[in-house]
């Protein structure tokens, strides 16, 4: 079974737009679990433009399923994760000014740094995952670092799948990920995946990536929720206005 962890960054983006507490991030997280999601993911960024560090702390007592915190392991992030002790920490090499995550780790160049960080988190009972591109060499090195899992960075799959005009092109879009998953399994790593996954592309991905333990989905899932909820809410307003 592949678990669905819902990334709630966009709920915080919406809340922050008005400076108040609507929507209430904690209530939304709880409801998402109530609706069946098997995890909650957040990605606090240094500028706190969506998830705030205090949100990460407050969610600890709210999330009853799997709590996954993603981010670049600078000192502030490491301290936060060690304080909150989520189920899983996902290490992402994103630049301070990045609009969104845009690359996986180079596990060869950053070997010693990642080994150190992974070992700190594991000593504190926190499962680790390293965000990577679908490359065998990178994944083999991730295993040597000692991480429990990798998260496959799926932007390239989502982009190619959206432009695929035939079944063959769809298979071409996923083939590096199929191979990456086989390598990860061979070297004993658990496999997560995320970035730009959506209702359109998730089934094909799941069907072609063996041993996929978990996907974290945020941007598309929140957009889809708005769209599929819009007609319902408009009608609720119309009923009140009649
Ligand atoms: C790690 C990753 O792929 C992300 O998708 C990320 O968590 C999304 O972050 P933003 O919501 O800031 O774009
Ligand atoms: N780890 C990926 C994630 O949490 C959500 O990414 P996206 O669906 O917002 O692109």
From TrEMBL:
Keyword check for S-adenosyl-L-methionine: no
Catalytically driven reaction(s): 3-amino-2-oxopropyl phosphate + 1-deoxy-D-xylulose 5-phosphate = pyridoxine 5'-phosphate + phosphate + 2 H2O + H(+)
Subunit structure: Homooctamer; tetramer of dimers.
Similarity comment: family membership: Belongs to the PNP synthase family.
Protein name in the entry: Pyridoxine 5'-phosphate synthase
Cross-referenced CDD domains: PNPsynthase (cd00003)
Pathway assigned in UniProt: Cofactor biosynthesis; pyridoxine 5'-phosphate biosynthesis; pyridoxine 5'-phosphate from D-erythrose 4-phosphate: step 5/5
Protein purpose: Catalyzes the complicated ring closure reaction between the two acyclic compounds 1-deoxy-D-xylulose-5-phosphate (DXP) and 3-amino-2-oxopropyl phosphate (1-amino-acetone-3-phosphate or AAP) to form pyridoxine 5'-phosphate (PNP) and inorganic phosphate.
């Amino acid at each position: 079974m592949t678990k669905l962890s819902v990334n709630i960054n966009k709920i915080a983006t919406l809340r922050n737009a008005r400076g108040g507490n609507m929507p209430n991030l904690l209530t939304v997280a709880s409801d998402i679990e109530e609706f069946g999601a098997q995890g909650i993911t957040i990605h606090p960024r240094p500028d706190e433009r969506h998830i705030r560090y205090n949100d990460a702390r407050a969610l600890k007592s709210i999330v009853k399923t799997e709590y996954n915190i993603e981010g670049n392991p600078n000192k502030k992030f490491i301290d936060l994760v060690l304080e909150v002790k989520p189920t899983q920490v996902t290490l992402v090499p994103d630049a301070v000014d990045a609009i969104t995550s845009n690359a996986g780790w180079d596990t060869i160049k950053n070997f010693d740094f990642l080994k150190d960080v992974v070992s700190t988190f594991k000593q504190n009972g926190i499962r680790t995952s390293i965000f990577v591109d679908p490359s065998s060499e990178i994944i083999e090195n991730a295993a040597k670092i000692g991480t429990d899992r990798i998260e496959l960075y799926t932007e390239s799959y989502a982009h190619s799948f959206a432009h695929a005009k035939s079944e063959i092109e769809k298979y071409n879009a996923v083939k590096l990920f199929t191979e990456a998953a086989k390598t990860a399994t061979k070297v004993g790593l658990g496999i997560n995946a995320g970035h730009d996954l959506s209702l359109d592309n998730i089934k094909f991905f799941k069907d072609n990536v063996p041993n996929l333990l978990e996907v974290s989905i945020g941007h598309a899932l929140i957009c889809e929720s708005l769209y599929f909820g819009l007609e319902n809410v408009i009608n609720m307003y119309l009923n009140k206005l009649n």
